[in-house]
Design goal:
The complex is a heterodimer of chains A (161) and B (94).
Chain A lengths: L37 H4 L19 H4 L20 H25 L10 H41 L1
Helix pairs in contact in A: 3-4
Chain B lengths: L1 H34 L11 H47 L1
Helix pairs in contact in B: 1-2
The chains are: A mainly alpha (161), B mainly alpha (94).
């Protein structure tokens, strides 16, 4: 026992000779191609274990197909990304504004007669057509742009982490 | 963070109110300006009446010009609220 080599502090003691702590949770054969985090990002790569095919010949399709395998239920750390309800609300609101603006433009283009100057309702609607249509279109387009920016920020956050 | 959202919401409501007031005022002024020429088939409006009508039309046009930026500000503030909330959601879910 006195011949046990001292652990090198520069490296992880679990992988050095003479380590007698708990068993490391790594495969028997060390592999440098498979870091720890991809188990949550690429569930399909780990879902092709060797011992499974002989026992279930009927369900061999997902393990050998080229398409990514479905998410394994035993992976407790992975869960599908939740949809952002506020981003959806932003997109729906923006598209609604654009739709209303386009409808106002259509109503201006297809009007058959010039609005009567003595009709307050017609005057008010004409004002809405003239003044609110650009506002609706501008804001709707900005909202759609903001939705895209939001998605780009989320993607950059994912890449950074 | 929360008080900024409240400010954004209040700004959207206030600008919307301002937009509606400007639109209502513009329509009212244009209607009054048009009334000057209401009985033009029977009596010609005097020069003073025409000047008054022009002044009303100009004021109406000024209010109309105010309507669009107020509407853009109101709608933009209203859309900024879900935008900020969506960004907060992203940062929280990361």
């Amino acid at each position: 026992m006195a011949k046990r080599p001292a652990l090198d502090p520069r490296f992880d003691p679990r992988f050095q000779r003479g380590y007698d702590g708990p068993e490391p949770a790594v495969p028997e054969v060390p592999s440098t191609r498979e870091p720890a985090p991809p188990s949550t990002r690429e569930p399909g790569r780990r879902s092709t274990p060797e011992p499974e095919p002989p026992s279930t010949p009927g369900s061999a399709v997902p393990s050998t197909s080229a398409t990514p395998a479905p998410i394994e239920p035993d992976d407790a750390f992975w869960e599908p990304p939740r949809r952002n309800p506020f981003a959806i609300a932003l997109l729906i609101g923006s598209l609604a504004m654009i739709a209303v603006g386009l409808w106002l433009i259509w109503s201006v283009v297809t009007v058959s007669s010039y609005p009567d100057g003595y009709d307050r309702g017609a005057q008010a609607f004409g004002l809405v057509q003239q003044q609110l249509t650009p506002a609706l279109l501008i804001t709707g387009l900005l909202g759609v742009i903001g939705w895209f920016v939001l998605g780009a920020l989320a993607a950059s956050d994912r890449n950074r982490s | 963070m929360r008080w900024r959202l409240i400010v954004l919401g209040a700004l959207a409501v206030l600008l919307a109110i301002g937009c509606v007031l400007c639109a209502t005022g513009a329509v009212d002024l244009a209607y009054r300006a048009q009334q000057v020429f209401g009985d033009v088939t029977q009596t010609q409006p005097t020069l003073e009446q025409q000047d008054e009508s022009n002044r009303l039309y100009q004021e109406s046009f000024g209010l109309q010009l105010l309507t669009t930026p107020l509407a853009v500000g109101s709608l933009g503030s209203a859309l900024a609220v879900p935008l900020v909330l969506a960004r907060r959601w992203q940062l929280r879910e990361r």
